[in-house]
Amino acid sequence: MKTILNVIWLILCGFWMFLGYMLAGVLLCITIIGIPFGLAAFRIGIYALWPFGYTVVDRRDAGAPSCVGNVLWLILAGWWLALGHITTGIVLCITIIGIPLGIANFKLIPVSLLPLGKEIVRTDEAYGAYGAYDRQGH
């Protein structure tokens, strides 16, 4: 089922969102200071290309630099990318077959706004390793 959803996603909106992230990444990598932000854009772009079967988890070791970086990201690229997810999510929700894809677009908004301090992992890894980690109270 994940593969079918990913193929439909790729055709309807994934490729275009991927191109948006790649454009943002290239523009951010033009300056030396923007390279970490550009790398984050490339990482999320791959996730936006093929999102089903993957999820976003918080990194436990992310600290104050991630918070400051997220503020800069939000100003430089985050709100543009989130606007793209909102627009495509609304358009996809118009049709019945597009509703799951629209919901997936809305789920990508938080990571497009604040990507630093997040990690993209396979869904089975997130609920395996991270779930056990949380149940132990750490």
What would your notes on this structure say?
The chain has 138 residues and is mostly helical. 72% of the residues lie in helices and 7% in strands. The chain has helices at 2-29, 35-49, 64-92, 99-107, 109-113, 123-135; strands at 54-58, 118-122. A two-stranded antiparallel sheet has the order 1-2. The radius of gyration is 15 Å and the shape is globular. The mean pLDDT is 85.
Topology:
Layout (H helix, E strand, L loop, with lengths): L1 H28 L5 H15 L4 E5 L5 H29 L6 H9 L1 H5 L4 E5 H13 L3
Antiparallel strand pairs: 1-2
Quick tags:
138 residues, two-stranded antiparallel ribbon, 6 helices, globular
Short description:
Helix content is 72%, strand content 7%. By secondary structure, it is mostly helical.
Q: What string, H for helix and E for strand, traces the elements in order?
A: HHEHHHEH
Q: Please state how the strands of the largest beta sheet are arranged side by side.
A: 1-2
Radius of gyration: 15 Å
Helix content: over 70%
List the uncertain runs.
none
Mean pLDDT: 85
Q: What structural class do the secondary elements suggest?
A: mainly alpha
Number of strands: 2
- Main pleated-sheet profile: 2 strands, antiparallel
Give the percentage of residues in beta strands: 5-15%
Gross morphology: globular
Count of separate DSSP helical elements: 6
- Cα separation of the termini: 33 Å
